[in-house]
Design brief:
The structure is a single chain. Helices cover 67% and strands 0% of the residues. It has one domain. Helix 2 crosses helix 3, helix 3 packs across helix 7 and helix 5 packs antiparallel against helix 9. It is built from 11 helices and no strands. It is an all-alpha fold. This is Acyl carrier protein phosphodiesterase.
Length: 225
């Protein structure tokens, strides 16, 4: 799941560090794909650092339930088949695009149906003390914490996720993610064709997309603030 889908499950929490932890694995991946941390079983003297660790573990659990769900397996496969003709001649693998596409469409739907507030999400991140974050990543084994700190500040300032309200931005986000793997993933024609498929698929999911959040929510242990 993408950032805002992870946030959905803890949208009512008052612990900004826990919220940060629920999206931190993906933030680190975006900052530098070579960063590999495994803080899952660590315990720190600072309770705020432990909240980040707890949120991190929640992220892993949500992803586990999502990626093994019938919802994800069905929709990523179906979207892959629909996108394959749209990217003929592109180096991008349709299964990769189907996987990422479903996750971004879900984030768009959460925003456009008012299931979450993007401003509230960023408000949590803004409330976190950067020194606590540095303490966590150093404790988890990161050697150069400055690299992530710089990326994190840029991520907060850009408010990039708010643009997902625009479906065209979802296609752009797909392109940017593909560019991490393939230098020139799409032509203009590819982008237009992908946008058309994404729009069609979003409309098809509009009435039923909350089923996956309900399914995962039933499996998750309840967190008490």
């Amino acid at each position: 799941m993408n950032f805002l889908s992870h946030y959905y499950f803890d949208r009512d929490t008052t612990d900004c560090y826990f919220t940060l932890g629920t999206v931190l694995p993906d933030l680190l991946k975006n900052a530098d794909k070579t960063i590999v941390l495994h803080p899952e079983k660590l315990v720190h003297a600072n309770p705020n650092v432990n909240s980040i660790i707890a949120g991190w573990n929640k992220h892993l659990l949500v992803d586990k339930y999502f990626h093994t769900s019938e919802f994800f397996l069905h929709h990523s496969h179906t979207l892959k088949k629909m996108l394959a003709p749209a990217i003929t001649g592109s180096p991008v693998k349709p299964f990769f695009l189907g996987h990422i596409g479903v996750e971004l469409i879900l984030d768009n739907l959460l925003i456009t149906t008012n299931k979450i507030s993007v401003d509230d999400f960023y408000g949590h991140l803004d409330s976190c003390d950067v020194e606590i974050i540095k303490e966590f990543v150093a404790f988890a084994g990161m050697k150069n914490t400055a690299v992530f700190a710089k990326f994190y500040e840029g991520f907060k300032q850009s408010r990039y996720l708010a643009t997902y309200v625009n479906l065209g931005q979802v296609t752009y986000a797909l392109k940017r993610i593909c560019m991490r793997v393939w230098r020139d993933p799409f032509t203009v024609e590819h982008e237009e064709a992908v946008s058309a498929v994404v729009l069609q698929y979003r409309l098809g999911l509009l009435d039923t997309f909350m089923e996956i959040y309900e399914e995962i929510g039933e499996k998750l242990p309840q967190k008490i603030d």
